[in-house]
Structure formats: structure tokens, C-alpha cells
């Protein structure tokens, strides 16, 4: 059986009384680059927040190394698992290097203050994300893409073996999207377990070693992209007719949407089905 340090069992997640995810089991394979995909409001980010211990389960358990993640001290979790949330906001007046250095919080103690190791970790994280030249700039004066790379640098400075990324390509232009995903792939090759929420199915198939496909708060498919991705799956989950071909650059699945007329006809059929059911 494939080892999974991070997993969820019978997980139900809710905001107030609104249940988003119900009775879900999922395993994050060690050493994988796992990408979670699915339509808006299907529970992708909610699941990721629960895996990161940001959101407390309504019922069920998230396990880290076989133990309920909520039973660990916060610093211990922070040494094993890093999280980059959607659209994070830095306090006003924070400069880039200061924000990246906050990734070293879990490594600080009363008897162990800032060290050469911390300095090296911050410098390396900034170099990898190409924000070194921004070190003295205020975070709130940067472009959206620059801010996203700075937040990623902070997560890298944490030096965890598991990294959770909620839509890490948000605000980035196409070139920088691929730079961030290339960096994630390199971190994965160095031995880190990466879990990311992405919207772009073709990017997900290109970079993931494993896909988790969600719909209406449930996992409907999980496995290698070549085994999971199909036109039938895309249409059933996203309601979009398409063809799934082979990417000529990477030999990974590539989703090609149907033309406008076919997609319009599919939407019309779905709407008619809703009317028919409503009149029964």
C-alpha cells in the first residue's frame, strides 16, 4: 500500500451550518505532486484548508503521520506542513524580506533566535522565486504577480516536507504561471510532497503526478492524469463537451473544449433537463 503521511477519514466540512464536504476519504501520496481540480464551489479550497488545519472538521479526522493533526502543537505542524492560502494579505508597512522571514517562525525559540541557517533559508527562497531584488520594497506596493511570488517565497522559507498551495497561479500572467509551476515541479523532484488547487485542467494534467477530481463536495476520481482524465469525466463534472488529446510537448492529457455550437447545444439540453425535472 502506498504510504500517505497526510490523509482524511470520513471528513465532513461546513461553514456555520452549510455543509461543503461530506464523509470524504482522501489520501495524499507521499512524494507526489497532487493537484485538486473541480468546478467552483465544489469544496477544493475547503478540503485544502482542512488538510492544513486552518479549518476544523465538522466531523471526521485529518491525520498527519497517523495522528489527528489537531492534537499536534502548532509549531510542530508548521515544521512539517506549509500552506499558501488564496489571496493572502500582509500587514501594512511590511517589506518583502520581512514577510519572507516570517516563514521561519516555527524554527524560533526563546533560546534560539535568528541564525545563519534562517538567513540562508530566506535568501534561498527569495532566489528561487526571483524576488531578491524586491527585498526592500513594501509588499502592498507590488503588483499582484510579484506579491504572489513573495508569498510563495515565505512558504518555501518554512522548509516543510509537505507544501499546500491554494491557487498559486492567481494574479500571474501566463509566463509567470508556468514559472511557478516549474518551481513546484522542481521542489517535488527534490522530494517535497506538493498539493495544489488549480483551475486550469491542462496545467493540472501537465504537472500533476496525481489528480483529485471533486464535484459537489465529493471526490469523484483520483489517480494519475493519464488514467483519470477523459472527455466523459470533464463533461460530467464541468458540464463542458470536449475532446481529450495528447499534449504534443509533454505526452500528458490535453483538454480541448468543443466548439461554440456544440457547447451551446449541451447547455440547452442541460437547461431543458432542469425544466423537465421541475415539472415532474
TrEMBL record:
Q: What is its main location?
A: membrane
Q: Does the keyword Hydrolase apply?
A: no
Q: Does the keyword ATP-binding apply?
A: yes
Domain of life assignment: Bacteria
Residues making up the signal peptide according to the UniProt record: none
Molecular function GO labels? ATP binding
Classification via SMART domains: AAA
- Gene3D superfamilies hit by this protein: P-loop containing nucleotide triphosphate hydrolases
Topology in the lipid bilayer is annotated as: Peripheral membrane protein
Sorted keywords for this record are: ATP-binding, Cell membrane, Ion transport, Iron, Iron transport, Membrane, Nucleotide-binding, Transport
List localization entries.
Answer: Cell membrane
The protein's matches in Pfam families, at most eight in alphabetical order, are given as: ABC_tran
Domain ABC transporter, first and last residues per copy? 6-241
PANTHER family, per database record:
IRON(3+)-HYDROXAMATE IMPORT ATP-BINDING PROTEIN FHUC
For this entry, the protein name equals ABC transporter ATP-binding protein
Q: Which organism is it from?
A: Micromonospora musae
